[in-house]
Amino acid sequence: MVGLAFDCLANPLGAVRVTFEKAVEGSPQNDPAAFDCKDWGAVDVFRKFLFEEGGLDQVPVLDQSNIHLIRPNSLVRYRGMVQDMLGKEFYIGVFKDGSNWNTNKFTDVPQFPIPPASETRLWERRLYHCVPVPGQNSWVSEVSSSPQFHTILTNSHLLNHGEKRSRDENDAAMDLEREATSMCKKQKDGSSSKIDGDVSSSGGSYFEAPASLSCLVKVYDLPESDIKLNDVIEFIGIYTFDPDTALHENNDGDEFLHSLTEDVSLHFPPSKVPRLHCITFQKMTIPDLVSRSCPIEDLSSAVRVVRESLLRHLTSVLGNDGLAAQYTLLHLLSRVRGRVDVMVVGKFSLNLTGFTRESASIFGDNLSRWIKDLTPFSDVIPLSVAYLNTAQLRPRKDNVTGRMIPGVLQLAHGTHLTVDETHLATGALNSTGVENAKLLKELLQWQMVGYDCEYYNLDMPADVQVLVISERRSNILPADAIVPFHPEAVNAATWTVLSDELPAWRWYLASCRTLHHHSVSPEMRKVLENDFVGARQLDKTLQGEDLSRWVTMGQLLSASFGESQLTPQHWQMVREMERLRQGRLRVIH
Fold this sequence. Notes:
The protein is of the alpha/beta class.
């Protein structure tokens, strides 16, 4: 035989079946219980195809723009944030048909009819509801930008089922066009015409593409701790769609059919939430997103040049306020690097004060726009009394449906959040407003978000960069550094998109942000202690939190130069920045 016996891209279930049959044949007494049912070699076949043979670029990305083009039972990619962890699902992993064993792994329904009273093995998989990453900015290019993508979608193998679900021998022989015709006929005979319309427009997937495509991901053979809530993950797996389930879902009058539908289908209808059976996955970090979206050559030798360019631009955006620009740069490089008791190491929230509603509409909006262009995930909260009293910031678990009701603060790690307090006016907070104000304060202070699980609250760790824009020092959001904003001019040129420099700036922020900071050397520790003692002799209000902030600033400043060790030069730069900031604060008071 010449070539592969199966097609990993268009007929992945064929690859699963062939490798399974070979594994069973090689096991004692042809019994699947005699070999490791968790992996019989199928995953290795796909990984070789994807990562060694260049198959990854051929796999289409599943999103709302192409869901109507992609055939069920084909290999796809889906990138999203884990919004909810739905626990385990048990299924018949293998069953015996006569003397032959078959597997149902990576499918929602059996590929072949299960004979009555056949010998079976019960396996389990984990369910995750994933959604597009909240606040993902448009410049973060999806992998679907691959030059091969459009060719893939017109490939005849992908526009037809590679492995069809069958209820009997006739169904197994039926091709997709006849299946679609049958579905249309059923709809015209009395049920809703919604799916009928989907068939004609979607080429047989019967899928209603929503404005934002979520996905029910089924993961196999994985410890629960490997995937966590709010992780950003790219899953590669088999997209499945069961048209019978979609029909039952739209037949509201048939209570019997609804009673047969599994709970997960009731709350995540397959005509709106596609199923993806995960074969392999990768957790996405900020550098992963930037390197894919902005592929540029290594700039390790040009960090200082890029730093100077970005700092110059931030200064221009902030009306030539160089001090505010320096603090903003450190803020954009901050991240949670660890937790020691109640102390959060590495965070650096920033409060720029001195804004009015008018100046916020100029400088604040311009800064938010550029942060959006520089960071993969960002959001802006126009904080007002009405917003606090009505917004749902806290994520909530609905114990009746078992679903997570998302809140504004359910965000992926690495998200940037700008809070514009210039919208605040005199008014009374209701109970919701008081709770929302507390949630925002806890996010700034402890990088924690409280989840409402009805009978108890669950504090989830976060890693969100928070920038507060306000007229005076915020009474709601106590930031790590308060910097009075002193603009000198409005620079119209900052509104121009600098496409030639943006990739380098994005790369710079992503790379320097992930530098591992070494502990402060004994020599530098002595310098820090002596300087802090001397500073306290001049200012009795200084406390341990101030020294902690200085150390964080020193490490971030070192990272801004591409270095992981705090040096005396960078420490003196931090002291000068703090001296200038304190001078501005004294003028205000």
